[in-house]
């Protein structure tokens, strides 16, 4: 039995697949199996996988009618035999030390359920500003505390970089279809279940940016569906039992977040904002108050909570400082949600 199983869903990936497979074959840690699932490809993906399976017994070629990345990933998961399971995408490149570093980490830290790594985008000339900002944020979150603190901002783990303990992944039921980003949905379920996260503080995966990446083409990855995922799990986790929820941010993000929270029966009662033109107004039927009025509003409820719904990094810093000065405790009284 191998020490590590690797799930590799593939769909019309012939253009990049050889490069991804070669990066796996060159791993310094060699005790692994690759479950390469051809999800009904119409190009040469199946032929490439068949050649690799014939050449190297560690590469197993599975095929299924086209059913999407969730079904393909779960088919690979169910075929895995090892105690550790890594994810990999057919358009990315794993650096040679990736498996060695991650397996060693999980062996040395039995309390950790999922270990990721830092990532680097490529090709440099095709990587836009937004993706660079996202990766900079991702790579700033290394410890379990940092990842948990900002898990409702965005997905804090690049899916093709993760390695799970098999029992945790099976306990979560693998990836699930809720209309949300399937990887973010899984990490939020792990978060609510008390799983511990970690990242190796070095780049171990090169993440390819291109127009056909699922995050650009699949509606599950739209902003609205990310907000739906946040609201769904906030309502079942940090906001469960709260009788008054204040959203800091009366702009577009705060408004859309409030709409999704209300659909989950979360009692949004007010918005806070620093814009003097908005203060004293109403948004979605709720008052917009100044930050200095937060303390008085806080005392109106038995179990209040606050969500920061302003997306800029500078705003996050100032909001965190203000709430700290008020004596509100992050992850107990309030959470970053944008």
In brief:
This protein has 13 helices and 14 strands. The protein has 338 residues and is of the alpha/beta class. It is elongated, with a radius of gyration of 22 Å.
Q: Architecture of the largest domain, CATH level 2?
A: Alpha-Beta Complex
Radius of gyration: 22 Å
Helix content: 25-40%
- The neighbouring-strand order within the major sheet is 3-2-1-4-7-6-8-5
Write a structural description.
The strands form two sheets. Strands 3-2-1-4-7-6-8-5 form an eight-stranded mixed sheet, sandwiched between helices. It has a six-stranded mixed sheet with strand order 11-12-10-9-13-14, with helices on both faces. The mean pLDDT is 95. The chain folds into two domains: 4-221, Spore Coat Polysaccharide Biosynthesis Protein SpsA, Chain A, CATH 3.90.550; 226-336, 3-Layer(aba) Sandwich (Rossmann fold), CATH 3.40.50. It has 338 residues and is α/β, with parallel strands linked by helices. The longest helix is centred in the last third of the chain and has 14 residues, at 223-236. The chain is elongated. The chain has helices at residues 14-25, 45-55, 69-79, 98-108, 129-140, 144-149, 166-171, 182-192, 214-217, 223-236, 252-263, 294-298, 313-325, and strands spanning 4-10, 32-39, 59-64, 84-87, 93-94, 114-122, 163-165, 197-208, 244-248, 268-272, 282-283, 286-289, 304-308, 334-336.
